[in-house]
Amino acid sequence: MAVLEKIKEHRMIGILRGYDTEDAVKIVGALVQNDFRVIEVALNSPNAKETLKALKENFGNEITLGAGTVLTVEDAQDCIDIGVEFLLAPVYGEAVLKFANEQGVLYIPGCYTPTEIYDAHMAGAKMIKVFPAGQLKASYIKDVLAPMNDLVLLPTGGVSADNINTFLEAGAAAVGINSALVPSNRKVDEALEIEISERVKELKGKVE
């Protein structure tokens, strides 16, 4: 199955930001135990590229692994060399999109306005991250898709168990979830792993 189809089928990308390698491996272990398997590591996390390597080594094909906050072609190349299956960014980088397409790797640029979204789509982006979605609400997704219903949108930023269904019902292909899935700046222990498990179950219960 193509990576884009895996993301659309999973309905959610779990975003890890701010955790070092050892903690990230523990967190992803908790996610995998609860059948949450599409995961992004933001490059502005400590030792992010080492974390990506460790996740590939520890989980292999059990997860679909992406790198987030990919802002340069150099970072895109490094992540592809590690074996990530998709790239994301908070903004639209034309050079990164061109490079990723040449490499046959899905790149999901971040856009905000209808013009930005359309320009990225026309340049070859197969999925577009609408960011920050929490400022826009689900009605924005519906409004953008009304005249351009062939777009594949991934609202990210501010998505939680309380509103995930509204985004999906508005036409989003999937959503990106950060702190509503993995709380920020927490000690990674059994209590956090239990909390993450509960959050996964709540989110899955909303979309199934």
UniProtKB/TrEMBL annotation:
<keyword id="KW-0456">Lyase</keyword>
<dbReference type="InterPro" id="IPR000887">
    <property type="entry name" value="Aldlse_KDPG_KHG"/>
</dbReference>
<comment type="subunit">
    <text>Homotrimer.</text>
</comment>
<dbReference type="InterPro" id="IPR013785">
    <property type="entry name" value="Aldolase_TIM"/>
</dbReference>
<protein>
    <submittedName>
        <fullName>Bifunctional 4-hydroxy-2-oxoglutarate aldolase/2-dehydro-3-deoxy-phosphogluconate aldolase</fullName>
    </submittedName>
</protein>
<dbReference type="GO" id="GO:0016829">
    <property type="term" value="F:lyase activity"/>
</dbReference>
<comment type="pathway">
    <text>Carbohydrate acid metabolism.</text>
</comment>
<dbReference type="Pfam" id="PF01081">
    <property type="entry name" value="Aldolase"/>
</dbReference>
<comment type="similarity">
    <text>Belongs to the KHG/KDPG aldolase family.</text>
</comment>
<keyword id="KW-0119">Carbohydrate metabolism</keyword>
